[in-house]
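User: Run a structure prediction on this.
Assistant: Running it now.
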Amino acid sequence: MPMMLSLAATQMKLAPAESITASTINAAYSLGMGGEIGSLEKGKRADFVIHDCGDHRELAYFFGIEPAYEVYIDGRRVYSKRAA
């Protein structure tokens, strides 16, 4: 994902927020799953990543490195950089 966000920002001239939206909620709706995934809302699956950065705009420039600090699937932590 960091590569896709980077390409969207640097080659397609999308703002970082636009590339994040395109790869989350818009992607979910394009698959007909917007009511179940794609955003953090009550009643949706809690699949999300906490990144090791100070601002969401940094994500588009993480090409080639893994910024994930913690990963959650169905609300359960499945990866933590702390535990690694």
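Residues 2-80 form one domain.
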